[in-house]
Each structure stands twice: as C-alpha cells, then as structure tokens.
Design goal:
By secondary structure, the protein is α/β, with parallel strands linked by helices. It is 47% helix and 12% strand. It contains ten helices and six strands; from the N terminus they run βαααααβαβααβαββα. The two termini are 19 Å apart.
C-alpha cells in the first residue's frame, strides 16, 4: 500500500483510464469493417489498432485527429479495402461521443476534494474539450500531446506536466491504464504510479501495446483508488 498523504497532485491518463476508449474505438471501427465485409473480432480490432497507432505516433508529430485518420487508412491497407472519406473521419469524429467508465466521474469528484487533478493525454486540445464535459470536474492542469508536440511514451509529455505542476516528484502520483504509454515512462522519471488494470480477467492486450513494468499500486478501477485514498488527511 502507498501512503496517499505524501501526494498533492494526481496525474491521469484520460483515454482507457477515465474514458472507455476501447468501446469507443470498436463503436467507430466495426461499422467500417462490416461495410467492407471484414469480420474481425473485438480483440483483433483492438490489437491491430494498438499496433498501428503506436507505429504512426513514433513518426514526426502530427495531430491526433490525423493519427486516427491514418489508423483507418492503415486498417484498409493491412486487410485489403479502401475506406471512404467519411469512414476515415469516423474514428476521430466519434471521440465526442466516448463516455467515461461508470466509476470515473464520482471517483474524480471525490479525489478532487483532496488532490490537484491533472490530465496528461495523447490527444488534441479540441478533442479533449468534448471529453472534459463528460468528466464533470475542473482539472488543475491539462497537458495534451498537441501542447507537448509528442506522444507518450515520450518522456517529454511527462516533463512538460511536471514543470507545469511545479511540485516535487515525490508529491505527484501518476494514474493510468496503459503500462506501455504511461507506467514505464512515469517510473523512469521517478514518479510513483498506479496501474488501473481495466482489462483484468479479459483476454488479449486490448488497444495498447503490451509492456511490462511494476507499478507502486494496482487497482481494477477508479472507485477502488478513491476508496483507498480516503485515508489521506485533508
């Protein structure tokens, strides 16, 4: 168990941790694939998404909307179909409808009473604005990939966040569902980490590339994290 009294700020990955991005991804991509008679199962779709997204993000920085458009195009190249312009845009356009996990909003409201809350997300400013409305809390800082001009697992995104938060590393706790995008990088900079294992007891690696690291704490959801942190003295 970690001592929550040490921390003044919680930094959060957004998509996959707070927002149910896997259902969002599937909701956008499955109609495209079915329209071209491509019958991939959910795990195949998510794991191909993870591979393609990671490959594209390793190139020169482009906005996340463009990343997602290229993901759809690459699906077509890999599987053998040509998506229409509307289908290419359907994935980034769907983000405005992606919803938080059922435990997210209440947990954030509880955590907000004790900690500064910060977002570190591989997203564009305008796309996060849609999600911010669903999350229903005011974040103390929001660091997007658009602002950092890089994508996690780049250390740059975390360094920008640490500078903005302006607290000692030992007072910041990073919370994320992706070991690949977040836990490895945050730990390498000396941050404490919480792994929100949203895929516990599910097959496959989902929409993130597989990676191995040892977080300071593992929880199944944010409700558990909020309950554990209730030991913190306000």
């Amino acid at each position: 168990m970690i001592d929550f009294n040490k921390y003044k700020a919680l930094t959060f990955d957004c998509y996959g941790t707070l927002i149910d991005w896997e259902n969002g991804i599937l909701g956008a991509l499955k109609p495209v694939l079915l329209a071209h008679n491509q019958n991939l199962n959910d795990n195949q779709i998510l794991e191909l998404f993870a591979q393609l997204e990671a490959e594209i993000q390793q190139g020169e920085y482009i906005k996340y909307r463009e990343i997602l458009k290229r993901v759809v195009e690459k699906f077509g190249e890999k599987i053998g179909f040509e998506p229409t312009n509307d289908q290419i845009n359907s994935l980034p356009d769907s983000i405005q409808y992606w919803r938080p996990f059922p435990d997210t909003v209440e947990a954030l409201k509880n955590l907000k009473q004790k900690f500064k809350l910060v977002i570190i997300s591989n997203i564009d400013d305008d796309l996060f604005a849609f999600s911010a409305k669903h999350l229903e809390v005011e974040f103390d800082e929001i660091i997007t990939a658009e602002q950092a001009k890089s994508y996690k697992p780049s250390l740059n995104n975390f360094k920008v966040a640490i500078e903005r938060i302006n607290l000692p590393l030992e007072e910041i706790l990073h919370v994320a569902a992706s070991v690949y995008h977040d836990i490895v990088a945050a730990k390498s900079l000396g941050l404490s980490t919480v792994w929100v294992n949203r895929r516990a007891n599910r097959q496959g690696t989902g929409a993130t590339v597989s990676a191995v690291s040892q977080p300071d704490l593992e929880v199944p959801d944010l409700k558990t994290l909020a309950a554990l942190s209730s030991t913190k003295q306000s």
